[in-house]
Amino acid sequence: MSSHLHPPPTVILPDAVADLRRHLAEQYRGVFDQRMIEAHLRDYVDTGPAEAFAVRLAADGLVGQSLLDIGAGYGANVLAARRQGIDAIGLELEPFEVAFARRRLADERPGDDPEQVYRQGDAQRLPFPDASFEAVTLMNVLEHVPDHAATLREAVRVLKPGGKLYAVCPNYAAFRREAHYHVPWLPLLPRPLAVRYLRLLGRNPGFFETHIHYCTNWGILLCLWRLPVIVSSADARWLDAPERIQSPRLRHLLLTAARFRLLWLPRMLLKLRALSPFVPSVSVYAEKKASL
Fold first, then answer.
1. Do 158 and 221 lie in a common domain?
2. Is residue 7 part of a domain?
3. Relative to the CA of 172, which of 13, 15, 50, 277 has its CA 20 to 30 Å away?
4. Domain harbouring 83, CATH code
5. Rg of the chain in Å (alpha carbons)
6. Residues near 50 by Cβ (< 8 Å), separated by ≥ 6?
7. Residue 143 lies in a domain
């Protein structure tokens, strides 16, 4: 494997990458092997996946608008969004990740203030006034916070009326591989049994015990339905503007369906899928209701 993170135009100093690899090896000891560490670097540190999401955010009309990325991690989502002209900042609890994100921002965008762009704080008690942001993102974060309801309440609180909320996380009610240990997992496997299971596999259950909190599709939807937001399927939304879809093949297919007034079918299927308790991942979009 290369010792550098690859998708351009990200530039991260080699000593920062070495520090990060040591940190990941320690944090995920008994959880990740070297192959998984490389995958984690690719998926959560490199900005390749983040760039694709940032393009979607820009197409959603967020260029020039304020965005808070809760659980910003190593800063990839914020960095990619700022490249698209979105006024994005990130909040992260872990000191190492905040320091790394600030360091990479200073390397690439010396005109930005790293301490203002990346803040350290708790997702369950956001250090921002009400109605501060046009958008809030929670990308693979909710499974790491003990109180999903409090986190979502805070996310909605800091949204402006009409603001957009994007949330993605694993669905622990699904038959799938566990998202961190990458081993087969039963839906809502009782936690004491899960600890024994991980030990039988030769894995360290410590990360599971301290950093993983089960979240489910229905659980997240129920939390949102109690808040002043309008919830919709993150995927079904793109059927309202198929010309904005990046994949040429899918765009052509949906534009053809629109010409024959057949978009109702994929829209219905996607909405039904979004309500399923067994989808592998929670993926929701919500808009904060306008003030009365």
1. yes
2. no
3. 50
4. 3.40.50.150
5. 19
6. 76, 77, 79, 80, 81
7. yes
Instruction: Give me the mean pLDDT over the 27-41 stretch.
Output: 89
Q: Please indicate, yes or no, if residue 183 is contained in any of the structural domains.
A: yes
Angle in degrees, 0-180, between the axes of helices 217-225 and 148-157, rounded to the nearest 10: 40
**Cα(243)–Cα(265) distance, integer angstroms:** 18
Residues 118 and 253 in one domain: yes
Q: Do 73 and 191 fall into the same domain?
A: no
Q: Considering only 54-63, 174-183, 258-267, 277-286, which range has the smallest mean pLDDT? A: 258-267
Mean of per-residue pLDDT scores for the chain? 89
Backbone φ, ψ for residue 179 (5° rounding): -70, -15
Q: Are residues 65 and 144 in the same domain?
A: yes
**What sign does the CA torsion over 253, 165, 150, 66 have?**
positive
Beta bridge partners of 257: none
Strands (DSSP E) along the chain, which ranges? Answer: 66-70, 87-92, 118-120, 133-139, 159-170, 176-177, 184-185, 229-233, 281-288
pLDDT of residue 7: 39
Give, for 49, the enclosing helix (H) or strand (E): helix 48-57
Residue 102 has pLDDT above 80, yes or no: yes
**Per residue in 193-252, pLDDT tens?**
999 999 999 999 999 999 999 999 999 999 999 999 999 866 666 666 666 666 787 777
Maximum CA extent, the chain: 56
Q: Is the pTM of this model over 0.90?
A: no
Query: In this structure, are strands 118-120 and 133-139 parallel, antiparallel, or unpaired?
Result: unpaired
Same domain, 115 and 221: yes
**Same domain, yes or no: 216 and 204:** no
Query: In this structure, are residues 173 and 218 in contact, taking their beta carbons and an 8 Å threshold?
Result: yes
Could you tell me if 185 and 69 lie in one domain?
A: no
Q: Domains in the chain: how many in total?
A: 2
Bridge partners (DSSP) listed for residue 168: 139, 283
